[in-house]
Structure formats: C-alpha cells, structure tokens
Amino acid sequence: MGLLIEDDNDDGEVSIPPANFSMVEDGVYRSGFPQLENFGFLSTLNLKSIIYLCPEPYPEENLKSLQSNNIKLFQFGIQGKTDPPTPMPKDTVLSALRVLVDVRNHPILIHCKQGKHRTGCLVGCLRKVQNWCLSSVLEEYQKCAGLKWRQRDLRFIEEFDVHGLRQCLYSIIYQYNGYGLKRRKLLYQEENVVVQEQHKPQATKGW
C-alpha cells in the first residue's frame, strides 16, 4: 500500500508520493517514476530539477506539469533490464553525478522506473563522493532495491572512480555532521560549484 499524506490545506487534499519515495539528503530525493497523481505531493518539495535515468521520452502530460512548476528536467538514457545484461555506463553516471552535486539544481528528485537499480547506483556513487564507508553504501543500495538487488550494481558502485568527478569540480567544500547512514550530511557552498560546460547534459527546454 502506498503512503498517503494529508495536506494541511482546508480541503484536506490527500497527497500521494511516488513509489519508493525517500529523502537522500536535505534537498535531494529519490523515487520511482512519478505518476500524475503524485505531482501534488511533489509540489510540496519545491523542486528545481529532476534527474531522469531512463532512455524513453518523458510523458507529455508530465512535461507540462514540470513546465508549469518551472522544474528543469535532466535526462540520462540508461538502459534498464536487458538480456544479456549490459553494464552501467560510467560516463553517463558521471554526467548525472555532476548535475546532482551542483546545489544550484536543488531541491532535486532522482528517478528511473522503479527507483531501485539505476537510481540506487547513482545514489551509491554520491555516497562515495561523500566518503561513506563502502559497506554502508552497499547496504543502502540493497535496502532500497529489496529482494531484486543486483550483484552487478554492487560491483559497479564498488569500482566507480569518483576522482573523475573531483577533477571536474573546483572549490567544492564537503563537511560532515555526525556519523552513520542517517546523520552524515553533505554541506555545500553554492557559489563555489563549477561544472565544465562540455559535460552538461541537454535539459528539457521551453521554460
């Protein structure tokens, strides 16, 4: 059963988060593919951007909702389940990670179809940038993926080299508060984040 959240407005409207919705960090969220009935809930997050990790075109009705709320869409076409399985594209994940760590795009939502594998890999790579210990990174991936976690995803996260990202960003300041999965946070200085223009993905235009 999905999570229902009753808004505080006078009409008692019920907001429905997307499947597998959760908060990654302050201003960073993850979920499965949002349906139209989820946009009422998403509007409460005041999103600036969405990272979409599937190759399929974004539904027209969803695009209209993004446009009306001035939300920028960053699409990175990563194939899902294939036969035979194909490895995660490192360069594409790195490009998505550059968008994710740029706080000018926050608040931001990351999603694929189910919010488990492709989304989990990107979040896992973010955790490595945050210097989480590897066991905690992999534990979070498996918890969010549930029974359908994939060994090749764990291997991808483990082998992903975050130094390529650090070489393309300048003067990013990372500070950590507390310890453990829930308390460790990433604090940024927005004005110091610089992304190389040649690596910026194409975003949906028109707003």
Could you characterize the architecture of this molecule?
InterPro entries: PFA-DSPs, Prot-tyrosine_phosphatase-like, Siw14-like, Tyr_Pase_AS, TYR_PHOSPHATASE_DUAL_dom. This is diphosphoinositol-polyphosphate diphosphatase. It is an enzyme of class 3 (hydrolase). Keywords: Hydrolase. Its EC number is 3.6.1.52. There is one protein chain. With 207 residues, the protein is of the alpha/beta class. It has a single domain (22-179), classed as Protein tyrosine phosphatase superfamily (Protein-Tyrosine Phosphatase, Chain A). The protein is built from seven helices and seven strands; from the N terminus they run ββββαβαβαβαααα. Strand 5, helix 2 and strand 6 (72-75) form a beta-alpha-beta unit. The longest helix is centred in the middle third of the chain and has 13 residues, at 117-129. The termini are far apart.
Structural classification: alpha/beta
Task: Report the span from N to C terminus.
Answer: 35 Å
What are the low-pLDDT stretches, counting only 5+ consecutive residues below 50?
Answer: 170-185, 187-202
Remind me, CATH topology?
A: Protein-Tyrosine Phosphatase, Chain A
Give structural attributes.
alpha/beta; two-stranded antiparallel ribbon; 12% strand; EC 3.6.1.52; Tyr_Pase_AS
